């Protein structure tokens, strides 16, 4: 049986599945006429979280509109994971006790490809009913410049040529907002739901770089500039829900239920997708309450709309002092020590002790406390429920993807807080676990595990550049200050110069301890986790 509208309407062979309890065709017609929510980014997190939220609103009668999805990077996802299944999706929630909750998601009203469906996307933008456009396009999508601080070619071309026929994503987005101004003049909210600190500001900054260039070069007039800078809002959000790549074991469960075409596939651009997503139960979404054209009634589902300050603190808590710093450190050490999945990695006593100490002893004391979320409870849930979930099967490889775009948030912010703290006990020179986590990432980049065997590294936009700077460093050798200085002093990586704040030398020392020879990573990790003065029991 194939996942399709026809088979869904038959309502046979769906035992054990929660099905949409609303008229999907009627919802799609109403959404087409008066869309309220458009989302860019057709990946797994979208179908596991925003699309499910819309399903809940439809089921509860809080809305009669669905969500429209558009992919602007890897459009093969639409062709292989959406349209063959009539835009239906399966969401499988994995609980730590082995229970599965299987649900057919019917809330996706349309799936679009930005390249070929640009007219329809523009039509949606021009409809005054549209309230919000959200994004899960990854951190790197907001970066307009390369490692040499030059604009990417498509961005520079858009800046020079103006809003007609843009090629970069941010240029196209600004152009679509301009079309909306001329069509209806109604305000709009652009909502980043990407897992990065100050996501709304990053989106706004990227857009404004292009818009300012257009205005300065006379490509747009004052009225257009005023609309783009004054009538478009960029709410910040804190979003959290672990959604690994589709698991072949879950595909086997679905096939045993009689479903066809559920095998995960990998696109030419490397996206791993299927007609299903597998995810965890815990989830968090806080949104800055800046929606000049209103928003869907998500607050009825427990989504928190609050001040930008609280959202910022919540995101800082997650990204700089709890989940994200632990993610990167655990995945780096896990990769070096031969672990594939996160649930296996966190069961390593040294690694678990390390990431706990990293968060509790160094990151959290100078991290934010948002008030609406308790940092201690948040970390406890991560360490005892989320990471150890044996059925989630999240991988070190997924976590390590694009790390160069993440370390400034995951470690640079807290390092800066220590450096600027007036409290004598808060000295960068006292830190142990943050420098060791950064050193572990550099050790990972060598591409050799703790046994001395080659290992495959995750995709990263700066991988080639970073490995070139680390070339010549081998196990059994010793890296010099001159070799590591170009990386550790790079403000585009860390947001600061690690030597200027006082921990660059310590990172080099830790790095050299971990390249001393086979087994040196384990020995170094154990040495600094076995200190009874800093050990933390959980």
Please describe the topology of this protein.
Layout (H helix, E strand, L loop, with lengths): L4 H6 L6 E2 L5 H10 L3 E4 L3 H5 L1 H10 L7 E5 L4 H7 L6 E6 L5 E6 L2 E6 L4 H8 L6 E4 L17 H9 L7 H15 L4 E5 L6 H18 L5 H9 L1 E2 L3 E4 L7 H9 L8 E2 L5 E2 L2 E4 L4 E5 L15 E3 L1 H14 L1 H14 L5 H4 L3 H15 L11 H12 L9 H4 L7 H14 L12 H13 L17 H7 L11 H8 L2 H4 L3 H4 L2 H11 L5 H10 L9
Parallel strand pairs: 1-5, 2-3, 2-7, 3-6, 4-13, 7-8, 8-9, 14-15
Antiparallel strand pairs: 4-5, 10-14, 11-12
Question: Can I get a quick summary?
Answer:
The chain has 25 helices and 15 strands. With 538 residues, the protein is α/β, with parallel strands linked by helices.
């Amino acid at each position: 049986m194939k996942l399709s509208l026809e088979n869904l309407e038959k309502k046979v062979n769906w035992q054990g599945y929660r099905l949409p309890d609303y008229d999907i065709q009627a919802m799609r017609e109403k959404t087409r006429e008066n869309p309220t929510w458009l989302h860019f980014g057709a990946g797994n997190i979208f179908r596991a979280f925003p699309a499910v939220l819309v399903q809940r609103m439809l089921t509860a009668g809080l809305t009669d509109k669905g969500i429209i999805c558009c992919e602007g990077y890897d459009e093969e996802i639409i062709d292989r994971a959406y349209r063959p299944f009539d835009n239906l999706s399966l969401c499988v929630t994995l609980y730590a006790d082995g229970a599965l909750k299987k649900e057919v998601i019917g809330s996706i009203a349309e799936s679009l490809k930005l390249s070929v469906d640009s007219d329809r996307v523009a039509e949606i933008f021009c409809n005054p009913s549209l309230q919000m456009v959200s994004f899960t396009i990854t951190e790197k999508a907001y970066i307009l410049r390369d490692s040499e601080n030059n604009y990417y070619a498509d961005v520079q071309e858009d800046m020079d040529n103006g809003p007609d026929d843009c090629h970069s994503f941010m240029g196209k987005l600004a152009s679509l907002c301009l079309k909306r101004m001329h069509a209806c003049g109604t305000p709009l909210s652009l909502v980043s739901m990407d897992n990065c600190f100050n996501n709304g500001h990053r989106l706004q900054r990227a857009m404004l770089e292009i818009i300012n260039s257009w205005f300065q070069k006379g490509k747009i007039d004052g009225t257009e500039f005023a609309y783009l800078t004054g009538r478009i809002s960029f709410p910040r959000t804190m979003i959290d829900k672990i959604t690994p790549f589709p698991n072949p074991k879950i595909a086997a469960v679905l096939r045993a239920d009689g479903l066809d075409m559920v095998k995960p596939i990998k696109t030419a651009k490397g996206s791993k997708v299927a007609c299903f997503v597998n995810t965890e139960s815990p989830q968090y979404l806080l949104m800055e309450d800046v929606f000049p054209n209103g928003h869907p009634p998500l607050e009825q589902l427990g989504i928190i709309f609050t001040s930008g300050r609280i959202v910022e603190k919540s995101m800082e808590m997650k990204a700089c002092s709890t989940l994200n710093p632990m993610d990167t450190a655990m995945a780096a050490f896990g990769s070096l020590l031969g672990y594939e999945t996160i649930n296996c990695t966190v069961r390593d006593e040294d690694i678990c002790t390390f990431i706990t100490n990293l968060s509790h002893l160094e990151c959290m004391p100078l991290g934010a406390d948002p008030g609406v979320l308790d940092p201690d409870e948040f970390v406890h849930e991560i360490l005892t429920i989320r990471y150890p979930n044996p059925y989630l099967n999240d991988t070190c490889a997924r976590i390590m993807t694009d790390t160069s775009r993440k370390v400034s948030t995951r470690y640079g912010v807290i390092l800066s807080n220590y450096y600027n703290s007036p409290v004598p006990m808060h000295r960068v020179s006292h830190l142990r676990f943050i420098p060791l986590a950064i050193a572990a990432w550099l050790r990972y980049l060598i591409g050799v595990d703790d046994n001395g065997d080659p290992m495959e590294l995750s995709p990263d936009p700066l991988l080639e550049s970073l490995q070139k700077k680390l070339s010549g460093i081998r196990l059994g050798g010793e890296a010099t200050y001159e070799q590591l200085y170009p990386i550790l002093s790079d403000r585009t990586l860390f947001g600061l110069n690690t030597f200027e704040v006082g921990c660059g030398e310590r990172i080099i020392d830790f790095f050299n301890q971990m390249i001393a020879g086979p087994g040196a990573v384990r020995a170094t990790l154990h040495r600094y986790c076995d200190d009874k003065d800093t050990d933390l029991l959980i």
